[in-house]
DNA sequence: GTCTGATACATAAGATTCTTATGTATATTT
DNA sequence: AAATATACATAAGAATCTTATGTATCAGAC
């Protein structure tokens, strides 16, 4: 099943920003499920990486939080703030370009490999 | 010119393995130039990251070195070893799949962003 | 003839980001 | 009753990168 662990360096923030750009509010656990679903189980975010990153983005003012209680359990919904939307736009642009550059490099002379 | 610094986490090793898979021997400085050239200056490897990574891959037995002297200056040519070729195949496969998953996630609902 | 920039290597301190391990607590399924 | 899923959280340690610095040679500018 080839789970791509160990391969997320630097992309976690971009994944979060992208999903919140599309969905307008999501909670942490939901994000982990969503990524698994979107990638057919190939990519797994660990909670140990996710939650601190959400806190960091909140501290930076890119995300806002609202807590709701579902089934007697708290959920923290995150949304992009106004400045978060701007920043997300920039960062995703350059991350997309980075990913494109990676494919460029990886797909040269594919005859050889 | 939007230089994508800060975005290379985890991909450096894969870039090295890919280039050495294609070119059979390269030296460090040449690798930095090659990446700049291939990506039209968008991606720059820093030497502070590159050289330690080459040393590490050598220590792991994936690369072999031969020193040549050009213009009275030493060059260390790196090549994939036998086991390096095997490993490179595996790692590049899963890195390619990771990059593909990234594009998958980044290009959903692009209408919204 | 000296200075700048390119070539070519190297290392070290510090920052960032991830993994792994744990912990708490409730709800659902077996 | 126990295991799994839901839902958050933090902390120690590892891995990987940035920035800064260092050495040394060579080519071209001025």
Describe the structure.
Chain A has helices spanning 12-23, 28-38, 47-59, 82-106; strands spanning 26-27, 63-70, 73-80. Chain A is α+β, with helices and mostly antiparallel strands and 113 residues long. In chain A, strands 1-3-2 form a 3-stranded antiparallel beta sheet. Chain A is globular. The longest helix of chain A has 25 residues, at 82-106. The first copy, chain A, starts with 11 loop residues before the first helix and ends in a 7-residue tail after the last helix. In chain A, helix 1 packs across helix 4 (82-106). The interface between A and B is large, with 38 and 38 residues. Chain A binds a DNA duplex (30 and 30 nucleotides) through helix 2, helix 3 and strand 3.
Summarize the structure.
Chain A has helices spanning 12-23, 28-38, 47-59, 82-106; strands spanning 26-27, 63-70, 73-80. With 113 residues, chain A is α+β, with helices and mostly antiparallel strands.
Helices and strands, with pairings:
2 copies of one chain form a homodimer.
Chain A: H1 12-23, E1 26-27, H2 28-38, H3 47-59, E2 63-70, E3 73-80, H4 82-106
Antiparallel strand pairs in A: 1-3, 2-3
Helix pairs in contact in A: 1-4
Chain A binds a DNA duplex (30 and 30 nucleotides) through residues 5-6, 8-10, 12-13, 27-30, 46-49, 51-53, 55, 70-76.
């Amino acid at each position: 099943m080839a789970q791509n662990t160990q391969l997320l360096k630097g992309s976690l923030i971009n994944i979060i920003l992208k999903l919140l750009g599309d969905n307008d509010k999501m909670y942490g656990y939901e994000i982990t499920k969503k990524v698994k679903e979107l990638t057919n189980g190939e990519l797994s975010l660990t909670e140990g990486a996710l939650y601190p990153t959400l806190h960091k983005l909140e501290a930076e003012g890119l995300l806002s939080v609202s807590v709701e209680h579902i089934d007697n359990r708290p959920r923290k919904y995150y949304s992009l703030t106004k400045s978060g939307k701007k920043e997300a736009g920039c960062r995703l642009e350059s991350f997309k370009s980075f990913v494109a550059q990676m494919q460029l490099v990886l797909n040269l002379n594919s005859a050889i490999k």
